[in-house]
Amino acid sequence: MTERPFWSEPRTVRVLILALLAAHAILRLSFWPTLGVDDAEQALFAHSWQWSYRFRQPPLFTWLLMLVSQELGINIVALTALRYGLLAVCFLSTYATALRLIPDKRLAALAGFSFLGIYTFAYYSHHDLTHTTMMATAVAVSWYLMVRLAEEQSSRWYVALGFAFAAGVLGKWNFALLPISLALTALLLPRYRHLVLTWRLLLTIAISVACVLPTVTYVLSLSPPFTAITGAVLHDGRGPFTTLAVGTGELAKSLIAYPEPLLPLLLLCLGTALWRGWRAPAESGGPALGSDFVGWAMVVSIALHWLLVPTLGATEFTERWMQPAIMILPVWLLMLAGRGSPAPRAITALAVLLAVLAIAAFAARVITWNQPAGRGHARDKVPFADLSRELARIGFDGTGTILVPDLHEGGNLRINFPAARTIAAGWPPALWPTPAGNGQCLVAWPDNGDGERNEAIVSDYLQKELGGSMDAPHIRGTVSGLMKGSTTRFYRLAYRLYPQPNGDCR
């Protein structure tokens, strides 16, 4: 029997996964506290409990951030803790699934490390992505629970799946295609029909519906709900044949892009074993949930995604939306490779390549962060801490209300003035907490070439939604700070500070 390498021992795998995530978390905390676009949005929305915060995204990540921020405050620490907590659950759940589906512990370990070879997780998720990370975690947990359910048809697993499915839908809407594809796959394959043709499935459905219904009802009560939710993927005036061609092509591109660069590396190292495993019959006494179920579940989920093209006119699919369909792909491929008896050197080669990718992703984050701010947005290099100190110096006491035109400015000002009520123009007033007391009103907007447009946005919102006026007695001016890594590029924030309440800006 081949001796297992140290890195494939279950305890070592778990320690390595957690150590890698901890290193990335420490790296993020060592950067400036300026938030990226997604984090800033969530920091701003986590003002109060709402059934939903925007049409296109459900609210679970925001709810979790509110819980975490009660202990850690609303800041980069809370956001980092939540992001890496979710990623840890995601990675460890996938590894736990692989351990139950893949007899060879070396290949199961590679499945646990497979995220190092998928761009969305290896790099992108460390500096952006909130709802997508929430959905990925729910996908990983759902697959683990599905395996446990196949092993033991106990009510507890149906109940657990109900909560996992609800978390997924409340994390990101398109997660809903995963439970549908799992149920359809079980019905398609006679060996697994008993998993869904049981009264216990009602427990899963009842729990999922009960958890999701209040948010769905709230979203549907808004206007226009359906087009706002689906607007990101619907066609824009294209004919039916053009829509079909474009949508199908975009879906295909995303399915190919999602598992990169892992897929070619896996085929390079284990291609021969994969071919043998594909042709070999499934062994008797294998896992309760076989490679046939996993493979067909991906096929069914891809088909459901494609049906959005002819039925809804969907023409845009990004690679990170493919998680409900093919996040399980590495586990499935390694299940097949295990049947093909891969050579130890091939397994070692893939492990080394994944380790190299992990080091490269870490180094890329350091190099990218230390690049000087160029001509682009470089939003993570805006000196909001310096700008906030300047706003405090000119008289803003950190309470009352802050009105800005953009979520990015709003979220970053909120973590610097956590006691203030911060509002982004363009969003309904019901989204924000009601004003309390008679505090100051600070209206601020970026003044970097489009200052007049930004000023018009906040002026219109102040008048129409908050019942205030830009002409009320105020102090006005501009604060500025050097972009991180630059000696010449300044970020300017124009402001009007109203010492007294200005309508509901107070």
Short description:
The chain is α/β, with parallel strands linked by helices and 506 residues long. It is built from 20 helices and 5 strands. It has 2 domains: 6-277 and 289-366, no CATH class; 379-498.
Order of helices and strands: HHHHHHHHHHHHHHHHHHEHEEHEE
Fraction in beta strands? 5-15%
Q: Which sheet architecture does the biggest sheet show?
A: 5 strands, mixed
List the strand order in the largest sheet.
Answer: 2-1-3-5-4
Cα-atom Rg, whole angstroms? 25 Å
Briefly note the structural class of the backbone: alpha/beta
Helix content: 55-70%
Continuous helix count: 20
Q: Mean of residue pLDDT?
A: 92
Q: Note the gap between the termini.
A: 73 Å
Domains (count)? 2
Q: What global shape is seen?
A: globular
Low-confidence stretches: 225-229
Number of β-strand runs: 5
